[in-house]
Structures are given as C-alpha cells and as structure tokens.
Amino acid sequence: MKKLFLLSLFALLLPALTACSLDRPALQANALGEPEKVQLFSVPLTSLSRSAEDDRAALTRGFPFVSPKPVSHFRGKFPPSVYADLEKRDFRAQQLTEVDFWHLEREPGLYDVIYCKGMLLGEFKARGKGLLESIAYSYNISAEQLTILRDWVGKGGILWLEPAIYVSSYDYKFKQIDDTRLNQLVRTLSGMTLDGYGLNVLTLRGRRIDDLHVEPLSRELSFAKGEKPGEIEQINARIRSLLLEQNDYIGIYLSVKGTPIVRSGGQVFASFVASGRGKIITLAPFDFEDSYHDGELFRLLLLSWALEGRR
Known about the structure:
six-stranded mixed sheet; five-stranded mixed sheet
C-alpha cells in the first residue's frame, strides 16, 4: 500500500519538475542576451581633495633654501614682498651635479649661481691638493667640464659651496673609518686649497647613544647688536643668531681662507674670495627653517649681495 502511494505521488510531481527544467535554459538565454544597464557618474577630482596648487613664494621652493636634510614644504617666515624683490632679479641657479657644461661653455649667462651641498663620507674622494678638483672627481665631473666651470666663474659666475663631509655612526660601527683615519682625513683637507687659497677646517662631533644612534648636535652662533659677524655690512646689520644643526655623528665643515662672512669664537663658518669677475662663496649649512633664528634671512641677504653687479 505504501509503495502504491509513493508511485502515485511521483506521477503527480513529474510534470512540474519537467516544466522547471525546460524553462530554466530559456530564462538563462534571455538574461544573457540582454545587456546589463550600468549608470556611470563623473565626480570632479577637486570635490574629493583640496587643491594641489602650491601657493608658496617661488623663491622658497629651491635655491638658496637647500640643505643636507630633507626640506618639506618650506614656506618662509616673511611676507611675500620680501621674496618678490629677489624674484624680480630673475636669477638662475643650478646644482653642480645637474649643470649642462657644454651649454654653459657656449652661453656663460646660462646660470647666475651654481651651488653644491655637502657629501657623505662614502661619496667624497680626495684628488690632489685642490678641493674643487676633489669635489668634481667625487661627482664624476671631467677635467674639461671643471675648466668650463672655472672659466664661467672668472667671467662673473657665482660658485656657492656648502662644503662638508658627514660621518655617520654606521661608518664607525662597520669600520669605514676610525679616529686614526678621521685625523688623517682632516689633515688631508687642511692641506687643500680652493682657487689658490687655503681652507679652514672645523670638525664637530656629536654624542653616540649606542653603536648606531646619535643625539643630534646643535651649535648656535649669537651676535650682539653692533657686533660684526664678518665683512659684509648688509649681513652685519641684521643677523643676530644662526643655528647649525647636525644629525650625523661627525661633521667636517670647510671654508676658504678669504674674506670672512660669518665668524664666531675664532672660527670661520662662511667666507668668500673674488675669482676674476666672479665669486666663490663657502658656508656652513645653517638651518633656515627655524623661525627663531636668522638662517633664512642670512641666505636672502647673502644671495642679494652676491648678485650685485651680476646683471
């Protein structure tokens, strides 16, 4: 009896199951045959983020505000008119490693200023008795290109050097240098010349926290009213304090034995020499981002003075 009931139930359900299996492919075919409608929306990029326009004074985006440390969106502390006065001079500056020497040979007015920052210990390669020759050799600048650079300075160019060699705690840890070799390097640098003039060599050593970490070093230079940092009156009249910050274990700072621009405690931190109709300027990399010191103003005044008579 139970078996007869199950056979009867199956007979009743069979038509319905067959209908479902026959209809499904038709439904799938219809679904695949009709394109899906998709709504597209265009959203302006400016509605998602703030404008990317850089409203800083053009002068604050590059030279003379160069540093061995990363510079992040430096704005300066002065009103726009201060920067506009120098921007009107329409001067052109280029980093030494980016100079087009062959173009410069044909067109000496291509740049007004060529500048160079300090180097890490592993980058510097001493070559003979000339500092400029050693810098050129370290950057793979050929002797012919160096001759073009010298000729350009003689015709009125401004060579702005911030010559320093930085020795890290890593260099000591991994035996790239030790005190004996450091002393030898200092003696080598002390015997070098720049455009025929000797060099002042200043070595500052920070404090090692452990084998790999160093406590940053700060050296502040202060000048009382009426005290003259050097021999440039525009700078003497307005510069009251400068800050030299060092993140590496040891910094070796070089300046030419010419006319002092900044000196303190019997040490020269910035100086210059005339070379033909041009100038060679050497300076320690004074901080310019700290609003409570005059590093920014110092660079503005020094650049303004250096450009006098250039155009």
